[in-house]
Amino acid sequence: MKICFFADSESIHTVRWCNHFHELGHEVHLISFKEVILPNIHTHTVHSGRIRVSGGNWKVLLKFRQVKKIVNQISPDIFHALYATSYGITGSLCGFHPYVITALGSDILISPKNSKIYRFLLKYAFSKTDLITVMSDQMKIETEAIGVPSEKIFTLPFGIDPIVFNANNRKLDKDSFVITSTRNFENVYNIPHLIKAIAKVKVKIPSIKLNLIGIGSLEQELKDLVNQLNLEDRVTFFGKVPQLKIVEVLNHSHVFVSVSLSDGNNISLNEAMACDNLCIATDIPANTQWIQHNENGFLVAINDVDALADYLFLAYQKYDEFQKTAIPINHKLLEEKGIWANNMKRMEDYYKQLTLKK
């Protein structure tokens, strides 16, 4: 097949999808508003100015004629937009079929709730699709609420590659209790909540350390907060690192924490589970599909810093006890629904079904 993705070329999700389907033997093209060259992928750039994480990128819609021209020149078997708002809506204006949109999280869970215009545009975009994939059952419910027929939507978590993310090289420092977050430095991921919890519990856990892997617009604000709370000797900022470095850090971590306000499916959580971290995450649908509270991790209310601090201390006190229960549960869950290759095989089958209808 000839597959044309329309997505952010700097996103790890985009890179994974493109590389995976290339490795399966398909001809893969990528159209993006950002200029990045990916080996073995036919890349096409539509310059549209800076894309803001916070939204308000409506001007990209004006670029649909350029996108349409490139798509028609490629003449793919499948045209697939990753991210429902900027890319998904723009792609829907091209009138190409079969057309697939994959929603990733805030594009369904936040944007249409904050803006009636986004809600209207998403409803239009979805009406032009042949298939919509979402990353959790909660996202499917929210997509149906926009007015999309249920039979058009499929839940497809991305999952992890167990060859990359595993606990084969796991080694913990007996002299430190290490907490890690791999979420980016944007408002939705609520990293200040985690930093404040570390400050509250540092006296009870003198050996506590915090690893922050990520980048984003709030980086300097987070560094200032660390300084204000006198945590400079406890917190390490890693920036953006390759997957193998993430695996290395997770395999030297006791606990993984994700305190995001919203998520589609928390792939970072899946990666930490695969590396045998004890996981603490906010009590939102994206996390409750993976964590049973007090069984294979802990769920904490959004913005409840005191509760998060308490769970960190509880994990510190009874770490080995909790891990005896959590690790086998996590492995079973990942095997059932969290393996990347298995889920992408389902996607490839969807593609084949769509091409037969073309």
Descriptive tags:
seven-stranded parallel sheet; Rossmann fold; 2 domains; six-stranded parallel sheet; 358 residues; alpha/beta; 15 helices
Task: Give the topology.
Blueprint: E1 2-6, H1 12-23, E2 27-32, E3 42-45, H2 64-74, E4 78-82, H3 86-92, E5 99-102, H4 106-109, H5 111-114, H6 116-127, E6 131-134, H7 137-145, E7 153-155, E8 177-181, H8 191-201, E9 208-213, H9 219-228, E10 235-239, H10 243-250, E11 255-258, H11 267-274, E12 278-282, H12 285-288, E13 297-300, H13 305-317, H14 319-337, H15 340-357
Helix pairs in contact: 3-6, 8-13
Structure description:
With about 350 residues, the chain is an alpha/beta fold. The protein has two domains: about 1-160 and about 340-355, 3-Layer(aba) Sandwich (Rossmann fold), CATH 3.40.50; about 175-335, Rossmann fold (3-Layer(aba) Sandwich), CATH 3.40.50. It is about 40% helix and about 15% strand. The chain is built from 15 helices and 13 strands. The strands form two sheets. The protein has a seven-stranded parallel sheet with strand order 3-2-1-4-5-6-7, sandwiched between helices. It has a six-stranded parallel sheet with strand order 10-9-8-11-12-13, with helices on both faces. Helix 3 packs across helix 6 and helix 8 (about 190-200) packs across helix 13. The two termini are about 15 Å apart. The relative contact order is 0.11.
